[in-house]
Specification:
This protein has 581 residues and is of the alpha/beta class. It contains 22 helices and 21 strands. The N and C termini lie far apart (109 Å). The protein binds ligand C2E and calcium ion (2 copies). One calcium ion binds next to loops.
């Protein structure tokens, strides 16, 4: 190839190509730059006029220690000892800074004299570009954390290391943000993304420098813990994460609480492939969700069978509604003043054609996860009101008998609930004050904001609100009072412990008197023994429910109980206990 200088105007297209080239192009003669394209000038920090006008000596563009090398390379080509050469050297920019350069130059003739034409690449640029490409391919754009492929790669390395070193331990934690979909839908996607970034930052605080925190996609994260000493470390890491996420996130002025469910799979020598271990951790994470979220579960092979059964359950549950396999059972609630039945709690159960009776705890969580709780909840509401209307026809008008229906968190996020309650009352003819809606403390803690309007509207229908499972969350009673609950249901774990120590009885006494001060009645649930009953009476609890009185029963039997005006004998021991205090 031969070139003349300056490039002939007639070769317009060729000229444009050279001028626009993203690689530096130059011609040197007599150790001076006699032509440089715009990119070449940019690399060295000169304007094109400066370089062309002055025919800048190559020495000025070279870092001093490298000049002998560059000079010798030019000399050999000009002398014709070699035709072309490819090498790297350090250049000097106009501002004095140093750059790594890669140069490719060949001997040519220009106006009858030897010259060199060549190309020049700024390696600093290329290194950065390569690094960025590599980084982007292996990292998540939103959080900057390693992505799934980098995570799998590191997991593969950890497995290989485990083969060589018997004392090397590693574990995979699979994390899923609880109810992220709801958060994302109610806050909008931009804030949802922001929340994921904040969670990522907190996760990084829970691991050691050598560990990997990755985002697998969506609201799923994974952590690879490596080379830890104590076998308890993965569980402790999960505890640290729960602690770290306890504080609210500030999202544009809105306080948001986010918890994660964590599945742990510990690396064993026999662990087959990285994919298998990640899947095991994922399975354990699902178990943690089923156990109530915001917790961790360690993988055990039996979980696979469980996961399959769970999937089957969901399919069956869809059909159960259509085939009317659900039933409502009623458990009496007894007044501790009169010993008479003062109402009942409606509890759904499933009459499965093959498996027989399935209790709600075995299918309500799955129904909540899949959204099936919405049609199920609506059905229970209608059914309970219809049956309750039938009970009360057996009673004097003034008898204060009411039916309690459980509401799930999903139902409370639905504005239609108000209309469903209205319709259930209208269709059954049940008076509003005979319906009580039970909402658990944890649901209130979680959805306090969105649910508060709906709760107020329900209350204005004349329906009573009952705070279920009280004592299992972290709320204070006075905070909950703002939602104007009429009745508080003491969780059965308190009742179970009430007669084991004076301290436990004291806790219950405090709750009862606080509820009283805030104008709420108290129902104790899970009463199983006469001793528990006696304690509750002594503590002036208003109502009680539990196997001691009766198990949940069908509507016909409950009506018999009402008809018989069944009165439970209240414990005389209560009198003695209350005097002792
Ligand atoms: P819950 O609201 O706390 O209901 C009370 C549970 O305690 C019932 O369990 C009841 O059978 C049980 N129980 C009653 N007395 C005793 C006792 O003396 N000892 C013990 N150990 N347990 C007693 P069940 O029927 O298995 O219901 C479990 C949970 O399922 C309920 O807890 C409630 O959270 C949920 N659930 C039941 N029906 C519905 C429904 O229609 N909708 C919704 N969303 N959840 C429901
Ligand atoms: Ca309940
Ligand atoms: Ca309860």
């Amino acid at each position: 190839m031969s070139v003349s200088h300056p490039l002939p105007a007639s070769e317009d297209r060729f000229r444009a190509l050279v001028e626009q080239c993203l690689v530096g192009i130059y011609v040197i003669q007599d150790d001076r730059v006699v032509y440089a394209n715009p990119r070449f000038c940019q690399i060295f920090g000169y304007t094109q006029e400066e370089l062309a006008r002055e025919a800048v000596p190559v020495e000025r563009l070279t870092c001093e220690p490298d000049w002998p090398l560059v000079r010798e390379n030019i000399r050999r080509r000009i002398a014709g000892e070699i035709q072309s050469l490819h090498y790297t050297f350090r250049g000097r920019r106009k501002d004095g800074s140093t750059i790594e350069l890669e140069v490719h130059g060949a001997r040519t003739e220009l106006r009858g004299k030897p010259a060199i034409i060549g190309t020049l690449l700024d390696l600093t640029d290329r290194k950065l570009a390569e690094e960025k490409l590599l980084h982007d391919a292996l990292h998540d754009a939103l959080t900057g954390l390693p992505n799934r492929s980098l995570f799998m790669d590191r997991l593969g390395q950890a497995m290989a290391r485990r083969e060589r070193r018997a004392d090397y331990r590693f574990a995979v934690l699979f994390l899923d943000v609880d109810r992220f979909k709801t958060i994302n839908e109610s806050l909008g996607h931009a804030l949802g993304d922001r929340l994921l970034m904040l969670i990522a930052q907190r996760l990084l605080r829970c691991v050691r420098p050598g560990d990997t925190v990755a985002r697998l996609g969506g609201d799923e994260f994974a952590i690879l813990l490596e080379d830890y000493g104590d076998a308890e470390e993965p569980a402790r890491c999960a505890d640290r994460i729960r602690e770290e996420l306890r504080a609210a996130h500030d999202l544009a002025g809105t306080e948001v609480f986010a918890t994660v469910s964590v599945g742990i799979a510990v690396g064993e020598r026999s662990s087959a492939r990285p994919d298998d271990l990640l899947r095991d951790a994922d399975t354990a994470m699902y178990r943690a969700k089923e156990l109530g979220r915001a917790r961790h579960a360690v993988f055990h092979p039996s979980m696979h069978a469980h996961a399959r059964a769970q999937l089957q359950l969901e399919t069956d549950l869809r059909r159960a509604l259509e085939r009317s396999e659900l039933r409502v059972a009623f458990q009496p609630i007894v007044s501790l003043r009169t010993g008479l039945v003062s109402g009942c709690e409606a509890l759904v159960e499933w009459q499965h054609p093959q498996r027989g009776r399935i209790p709600p705890d075995d299918f309500i969580p799955a129904a909540e996860e899949t959204g099936l709780i919405l049609p199920i909840g609506a059905w229970v509401l209608r059914e309970a009101c219809r049956e309750a209307r039938a009970f009360v026809s057996h009673l004097p008008r003034s008898a204060p008998v009411a039916v309690s229906v459980n509401l799930s968190g999903r139902q409370l996020l639905q504005a239609e609930l108000l209309e469903q309650v209205r319709a259930a009352l209208r269709e059954s003819g049940l008076l509003a004050h005979r319906l009580r809606l039970e909402v658990t403390e944890s649901v209130i803690m979680e959805h306090a904001g969105p649910a508060s309007l709906l709760l107020a509207q329900l209350k204005s229908l004349g329906v009573h609100l009952l705070l279920d499972d009280f004592g299992t969350g972290y709320s204070s009673l006075s905070y909950l009072h703002n939602f104007r609950f009429d009745t508080l249901k003491l969780d059965r774990t308190f009742v179970a412990r009430i007669d084991t120590s004076a301290k436990n009885a004291e806790i219950v006494r405090t709750i009862v008197s606080l509820a009283r001060a805030l104008g709420m009645d108290v129902v104790a649930e899970g009463v199983e023994t006469p001793a528990q009953l006696a304690q509750l009476q002594a503590l002036h609890c208003d109502y009680a429910q539990g196997y001691y009185f009766a198990r949940p029963m069908d509507a016909a039997r409950f009506v018999e109980l009402l008809d018989a005006r069944k009165t439970w004998p209240l414990s005389p021991a209560a009198q003695a206990l209350s005097h002792r205090r």
